[in-house]
What does this fold into?
Amino acid sequence: MIANPKRATPAPSLFQNPLEGWTNDDLLLDDKEREYFCDRHPRLAPVFDWREMREAFALHEQPARQARKRSRLFGKIAIGLGFLGLALTALTPFLARLLSLSRPFLNDPDSADRWVGGLAAVLIAAGTLLGFHQALVGQAKRQWLISRFWTERIRQLHFQLILNNLAKAAAALDPGRAQEAWRTLRNRALDDFVHDAEKTLAKALAELEDDHAEEDVWVDRAWSDAPPPPPETPELAELLQGLRQQRIGVQERYTALKLTPGLHSPQTRAQWLHGVLDAFIAMILLITVAIGVLYAHGSEEPHLWLLGLLGAAGALTAAVVALRVLDEGLQLRTEAERYRWYLASVRSIRDRFEKADAADRIRLLRELERLAYQEMRRFLIAFKEARFIL
It folds into this structure.
């Protein structure tokens, strides 16, 4: 993709989100990016600058982001409540003995035990109920996935429409009736998409799970059969370079930024999470060995510090369980693997595209549409099945 000096930024730090402020450059959603593109590629502007499509996209883009935040917040709260409940359960003997040494449970460990145990049970129940609510009837996750499905299908409509009408799109590079015909064609396609999607979007999302062969790539099923390639003209060559920049280039840049090492990278977060898990498991093992040695020496009654060790081992075990559920809910490993696969695939298409003739370039762009559909489908299914139940 041609670099944009106006948007050049320094390398992100470990805690900086490299995608902060991402504006969907492939759709020219940002005013400055759109102005830059139209200034550098005025002949391509009538094809790639599509105001009505951007307006339809924006209707669901912000709701998708907000619903995602709500869904994940509720999931994390559910895990946090469950973890606190399990940790308190493990620490109940220690805390009951500790509280019995002070008011209001002075010399009454049984009462302290009931209070701590009761609080632990309430926390576990609250976390479980919230987790089940998110998994079974949670509106935030459902809204997030439906809105994300909508936005990605609109993105696919934009590029698939060009790819399946290359002759008309190439003709629209020159001023005249061809540009007006192109605007009419694409706005009619968008109207049809919006009309049909508003009625069937939730159903289409549900049916996505059954598309195991991943054949439902094309927004318009009539596009499943590739049309004959148009005559090779300078306009077609310029248009294909525009698709290389806006479709292949932006997809590669977004995915590479998503995998940039740092706090916001699913790959880095998965590595950190599993590092913490390994550390906790090692600590549990050491504490367990220490407790075993102490018990081997015999003791009539566990001391307070021994009860603390037992509670700490149980609390660490609860932390391990909570982190594994968090990994399942956030799909960190699955997401990282999906992005690695997609980035490698996009870069393979990019490299082959540079050496291909016009016919092969068209074939490679159609291959990318299949990859984009596969990535979207696997993303939606993975998060539809994600659970935050401890």
In short: The mean pLDDT is 88. The chain is about 75% helix and 0% strand. The CA atoms of residues 85 and 119 lie 7 Å apart.
